């Protein structure tokens, strides 16, 4: 295949739509799959790889790895990919991010340094528990490298402080598990940006994931020191991580002690994620899981816990992750006037089909898949979907998450087959969820717009096309 032209990764990347043509790479081949995809609507999953390498997707959907498929692919080959020089950039040793871990090429970065990424949204709802390598990543700083033998968790109390090793945590306490969602307050921010610009990463709908976390219950850890959380003095419990800002201050967060008491045995000092040691990006070796609460408080690389009369003084507690009304802008914002985000509001999203998807020719029905979740352990009791922009609704089928509706920390995945409006060439699919407190999502994003683009939980709308 030496006779074929060569293309750079950037050239391939620019061919990612029906208009430009859809190119993908596999090993060192470049393939134009535009016609193929249009003729085989069932094979639309391949579109996730538009402008990119198909290999990571094929490693997941490995049914494709057979000679017949390779043969079809070779018939679509248009060229070869230019060998990329792997020379390290000059000065790379000064790069504070040089020790960051390897990541799955399936993750879609919204920023690389620090690393922030979400999984392809269709893959997000394939499984109840998000596989570790697909779990969204939200880092504010370089990832610390921690040797388990050097690790210490310092817990400070009036009665003095005590430090626990990694082995102490794994061997001296009962193991407790909780299945819980972690969601960034900025999930679905990209919809808010369309109303008016905001400051923050341009997250789609997948800055959320669901995992089973195991470790030591916070209560047990404190009891070991003779401390009953019901009687502790102070107003807040503060958590600090090992990742540091250039001024040496660590990532930190706090929650009111009253909330810690309410959650009591559900707060986990975790050493396992889905049955494996926690991957570096997600807090190796130890992170805290505070179910039902915003991602920002689930401190990774946790090495300090203490009680305080005031909230964590970290930037992320005091000057970020707060809500404001839509008339507040950067000229008149007063961060001290607003309450820190903790338990999150009800949210849902359609993960399949995706925005601008081409449905099958003359399709009369569409299958929607997605997630719904609410903070504070409030279970999802109903998910409504519409295929006509919200004029008519039907209920989606909910997949039970096995948790009590009053302590529902995991998400609820759902599916629905919805008839399409007859004769329409395009339509807007909509989803909205209801939690056990009958909280509902706002119908539009305008009224909840805020300068940081947090808490973007309006009805989720996805426009799709129906070729005649
Ligand atoms: N903990 C530390 N130490 N440093 C961080 O940057 N990011 C927080 C939280 N814990 C962060 C952290 C934010 S804002 C979110 S949304 C979650 O981690 C993301 O967790 P994940 O990367 O495991 O998905
Ligand atoms: Mo976050």
From TrEMBL:
Residues 92-112 are annotated as: Disordered. It is an enzyme of class 1 (oxidoreductase). Residues 92-103 have a biased composition (Basic and acidic residues). Its EC number is 1.8.3.1. Keywords: Metal-binding, Molybdenum, Oxidoreductase. Residues 4-82 form the Cytochrome b5 heme-binding domain. Its cofactor is Mo-molybdopterin. It comes from the Eukaryota. Pathway: Sulfur metabolism; Energy metabolism; sulfur metabolism. This is sulfite oxidase. It comes from Aplysia californica (California sea hare). The gene is LOC101858358.
């Amino acid at each position: 295949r030496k006779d074929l032209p060569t293309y750079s990764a950037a050239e391939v990347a620019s061919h990612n739509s029906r208009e430009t043509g859809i190119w993908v790479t596999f090993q060192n081949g470049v393939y134009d799959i535009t016609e193929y995809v249009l003729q085989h609507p069932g094979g639309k999953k391949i579109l996730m790889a538009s402008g990119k390498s198909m290999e990571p997707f094929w490693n997941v959907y490995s049914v494709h790895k057979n000679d017949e498929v390779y043969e079809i692919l070779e018939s679509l080959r248009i060229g070869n990919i230019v060998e990329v020089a792997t020379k390290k950039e000059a000065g790379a040793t000064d790069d504070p991010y040089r020790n960051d871990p390897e990541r799955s090429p399936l993750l879609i970065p919204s920023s690389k340094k620090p690393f922030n990424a979400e999984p392809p949204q269709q893959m997000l709802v394939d499984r109840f528990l998000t596989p570790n390598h697909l779990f969204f990543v939200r880092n504010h700083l370089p990832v610390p490298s921690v040797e388990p033998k050097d690790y210490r968790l310092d817990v400070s109390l009036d009665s003095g402080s005590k430090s626990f090793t990694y082995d102490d945590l794994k061997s001296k306490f009962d193991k407790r598990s909780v299945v819980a969602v972690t969601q960034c307050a900025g999930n679905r921010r990209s919809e808010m940006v369309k109303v008016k610009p905001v400051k923050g990463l341009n997250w789609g709908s997948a800055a959320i994931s669901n995992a089973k976390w195991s470790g030591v219950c916070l209560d047990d850890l404190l009891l070991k020191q003779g401390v009953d959380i019901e009687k502790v003095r102070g107003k807040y419990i503060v958590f600090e991580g090992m990742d540091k800002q250039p001024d040496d201050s660590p990532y930190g967060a706090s929650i009111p002690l009253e909330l810690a008491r309410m959650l009591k045995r559900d707060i986990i000092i975790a050493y396992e994620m889905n049955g494996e040691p926690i991957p570096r990006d997600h807090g190796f070796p130890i992170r805290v899981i505070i179910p039902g609460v915003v991602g920002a408080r689930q401190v990774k690389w946790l090495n300090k816990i203490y009680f305080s009369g005031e909230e964590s003084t970290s930037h992320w507690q005091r000057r970020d992750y707060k809500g404001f009304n839509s008339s507040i802008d950067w000229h008149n914002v007063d961060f001290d006037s607003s309450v820190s985000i903790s338990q999150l509001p009800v949210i849902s999203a359609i993960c399949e089909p995706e925005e601008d998807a081409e449905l099958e020719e003359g399709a009369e029905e569409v299958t929607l898949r997605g997630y719904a979740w609410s903070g504070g352990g409030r279970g999802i009791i109903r998910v409504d979907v519409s295929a006509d922009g919200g004029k008519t609704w039907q209920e989606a089928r909910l997949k039970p998450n096995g948790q009590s509706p009053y302590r529902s920390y995991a998400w609820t995945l759902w599916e629905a087959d919805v008839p399409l409006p007859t004769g329409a060439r395009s339509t807007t699919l909509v989803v909205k969820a209801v939690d056990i407190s009958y909280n509902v999502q706002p119908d539009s994003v305008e009224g909840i717009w805020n300068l940081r683009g947090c808490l973007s939980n309006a009805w989720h709308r996805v426009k799709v096309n129906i070729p005649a």
